[in-house]
Protein: Glutamine ABC transporter permease
Amino acid sequence: MDFAGAYSPDNLKFLLDGLYVTLIVAFSAIVLSFLLGCVLGVIRYAKLPVLSPISFVFVELIRNLPLLLLIFFMRFALPEVGIKMGPMAAAIVALTIFEGAMIAEIVRGGLNSVDKGQIEAARSSGLTGAQTLWHIVLPQGLRRMVPPLVSQFISLLKDTSLAVVISLAELMHNAGIIIGHGYNYTIPILLLVALIYFCVNYLLSLLSRRLEARNA
Structure:
């Protein structure tokens, strides 16, 4: 095992470049999937005519497909119908759709967890359904969603490594290139990559705990 060679300045910079791409993809997908998941979750919770059945079919379909299939579809299938995306865009779109479906269920579950008595009290006091949702249900539901949402975001960050199959220059892709350049680099590089993923995800876990403590 050649730790000195594996951890050369050039290799470390190359890994950090990959980490930067990983974080850009993860952050973009987290924001977009959260927005998508909230919209789908609220639609399913509200049981809106037409929209709720469509949302149900979409969520159940996406949740039962492998993420890797979506990544391949965005990168290689859509160009056949004239929609071309680079590796980063394809990864972000695939992650957004896949994680958005997962988050939709988290949102729906969080909203359903709000005590029905509070909803009835709000309606009896003259609030409309939309006002009740905005002022009563959403604030309480969102606080309860924090732990599962952070867990899903951690999962999303780790799932960015699947984009290696479409040659996105993220952390695992760059790690693979370094390993290919040195016979004894495999264990040192993989250990370092594991440490990087652990540190980033552990920071997210700490953030989750602080948010839970603040909302308690």
